[in-house]
Amino acid sequence: RVSSVLNRDVKQFGKKHMFDASEETCWNSDQGTCQWVTLDFPRTVKVSQLHIQFQGGFSSRLCTLEGCRAGEQLVKISDLYPEDINAMQISFAALRAGFQVEETVLDKLKITFENSTDFFGRIVVYHLGVLGERL
Fold first, then answer.
1. Engineered SS bond to 15: which of 2, 85, 117, 131, CB 3.0-4.6 Å?
2. Coiled-coil intervals in this record (predicted)?
3. pLDDT in tens, 59-118
């Protein structure tokens, strides 16, 4: 699930485009503060990495990660501080300071884009990848 889609045009800007591996498509949120993406996994997973590619100028200065097991309330996992660039950003601490994800076991993950670099609060994500293992 996502917080919003630009002009409600899910065909052109919907959430599925974050996962289609195409450089031509993206999820584009509508304007507003605190856009978010929620991922419900079919099985319990141990998340170890997060890959995200924004469109420069439409990224977030602060991303809050929350997660939980099935039937539980979301709890904060960590804050991430991505750069406002077009390149893929990976959650390895050694590659990018301030962009680290602790290994976490969960069934649901929520990424909240707290502080958009766009004046209107829009977020554009070309690729979102959550790596880890199924339990």
1. 2
2. none
3. 999 999 999 999 999 999 888 899 999 999 987 533 344 455 667 899 999 999 999 999
Rg (the chain; Cα; Å)? 14
φ, ψ of residue 11 to 5 degrees: the values are -65, -40
Using CA atoms, how far apart are residues 40 and 38, in angstroms rounded to an integer?
7
Tokens, residue 18:
């974050």
117, 24 Cβ separation under 8 angstroms: no
d(CA 69, CA 33) in angstroms, rounded, equals 27
pTM check: above 0.70:
yes
In angstroms, the Cα distances linking 81 to 10, 25, 45 are 28, 24, 23
